[in-house]
Amino acid sequence: RRLIVLGSYGSWWVHNVSNGYRRATFSSPDGRPESAALSSNGAFVAMASRSHVHVLNATSGKSHTVIPWPDVQALVFQHARGRGVPTLAGVDGQGRIHQWRGRGAPVDVGSSGLNGIRSMDLHSDGRTLALGDRRGGVEVWDLNSGRQQGNWSLGDTVRALSVAPDGRSVFALSDESHASRLPIGGGSAEQVLSGQEGEIHALLTAGQRQPFAITAGEDKSAHFWWLSSGKNFARLIPLKQGWAVISPEGYFDGALEGKSEDRLDAIIWEVEKTSLPLDGFMESYYRPALLGYLLAGKQVTETPVTRISEELPIPPTVTLVEPSGSSRSSQSPLRVVLELEDQGSGIEKQRLFLNNKVLDAQSAETQVIAASGNTPARWRVTYSVPLVSGENRLKAVGFGKHAIEGAAAEATIHHQPSRPGPKPNIHILTVGINRYKNPDLDLNFGVPDAKGVLEFFTKHSRQLDAPVTPMEIYDNKATKKGILNALESLESTNPEDIVLIYFAGHGDTRKGEWYFIPHDLTVPHRDDYLRRGGISSSILQLMIAKIGAHKVVTIIDACKSGAAVDRFSTFKDQRSFALLSRAAGIHIAAGATAKQNAGELDTLGHGLFTFAILKGLNGDADSRPKNGRITISEVFGFIKEAVPKLSRKHGIPRQNPVINSKGSDFQLLRH
Fold first, then answer.
1. pTM: predicted TM-score of the whole model, two decimal places
2. Cα–Cα distance measured from residue 236 to residue 244, given in angstroms and rounded to the nearest whole number
3. Which residues, in sequence order, are CB contacts of 383 under 8 Å at separation 6+?
4. Is there a contact between 225 and 236 (Cβ–Cβ < 8 Å)?
5. Which of 257, 433, 530, 537 could cross-link 446 (Cys pair, CB 3.0–4.6 Å)?
6. What is the pLDDT of residues 472-508, one digit of tens each?
7. What angle separates helix 480-489 from helix 537-546, to the nearest 10 degrees?
8. Rounded to an integer, what distance in angstroms lies between the CA atom of residue 398 and that of residue 325?
9. CA–CA separation, 480 vs 518, rounded Å?
10. How far is Cα 179 from Cα 182, in angstroms, rounded to an integer?
């Protein structure tokens, strides 16, 4: 995670690669070094002066070792994390190769026939050394025996070298558009890793079980290749502060939050004259931890879809017929009409959002006004939309094949009611389960956490801008029917109201769908039982769409039900929550964990996730800006940073909350 930058006058800087910030500035011991190398574990820096090589601590800049070693022109530093001894290899001005193994003086290995070393790599075994020069020459040496194991002439400057993880070949970068594979022990150079746009500037190899290469170059992205087949399997695109990973099939992962230039929608798919933001492909192609899945050799999806490289289905266009553009209205509800037109991939569905929250599509009237054979070619959809006082932002989107989302149509209505509407309320539904019908599922936190959230709001009612209407369901009352009835009762809330829904209990994800496990579901590890008896994210989406209030927050503190849990389990949950937040236009914070930890309740009085929420609501979240007012975005920002820190502080297995905010930000309370 460190980048070392050398200055012209002996200064050197340490940068944090993850955010680009300069972490420290140091001075070189003997002025400007002739060459330098960062150890493979990032802990040390070796700097060569005219007479010595200085090994420095990369964090503090303090001297670790000084090695008498004159005229070193090129260095490479291998130090495997947690094992082995540090190994330095260097070439001096006369072409002599030396090796240093953590103590004593450097050992003379042999004499290179290369002229002007431009690249070096040392295998993790500290034994196999590859050298490349400005004329395209490559040599491979066995440092232990002092024997040369091969040499090649590639015809152009060797800009990068990497010894393959198995130690049987070297990958060299001299041509602008591809790499060369050089078999150690004999054999001709083989052209590999071709197909990247523009020049390739950098190369490295990694991976023991499934070796792969990473190349980077003129297209400002990193490409991942399997060494066994030479096939490209992923592309990493850095954004201003965010990032995205895309596979050749079109699956992707990346930043969902932050400024527009840092999110996935900063990346555009282009076909002919159509441009589609990447995040419009989320429902079928978004896969959190995509790169981890690929590197682990795991199946990315259980339901494969069309490769984007083979077909890019163009979604339908959508037009807001009534109203169009900005307007004013004293009427509420307002008639809203939108039209969708097929562009070749059909019309699968549509959504209408008001102030970022989705409206109930089942309540809309849909007409087919044109058809191509038996296939609808144009829809007209009419909504009756209750407005809030002031600004009302409408956004309509259409979906085609594979649920690919098209460009949005937008309008703004300024509503001035003829008479004041009802005063807003804050409706809080808390669901907590400690005791399940199947006692093997019993928990410690569900009820205390749910009650803690509700008690906070009732005790701090004077700090709220509206009265609280509580609704609570615990243990044997929290059946599937009981929970759905409670959600249904929120349909009558008014547009100006706030709704907060809190779930604490078991949850699990199967085949891309997240399920909350109610009290009466006894066999959640069986897929058929889970589908029938669980409350899926799809059901939640439909019920949230029917809620009258525009400001909806859902908080989920769930742990796995005991089914098989692997390191990718929480990422499956993350996908479901992200899609629910996007489709419903609401705020979601989820603290899904692999298992409960009784120590949290004893130490904190709550589960870690809920403890962080309450801590934020009590004032710690008021920071952006600190003005005595706490917004929902401040609460979510606080818990995202606080939960990992609290888990370290209290010795609890690390937790990373899943935060997705697609709803409008609003003030929750004063303090």
1. 0.84
2. 6
3. 335, 336, 337, 338, 352, 359, 363, 364
4. no
5. 433
6. 999 999 999 999 999 999 999 999 999 999 999 999 8
7. 30
8. 18
9. 6
10. 10
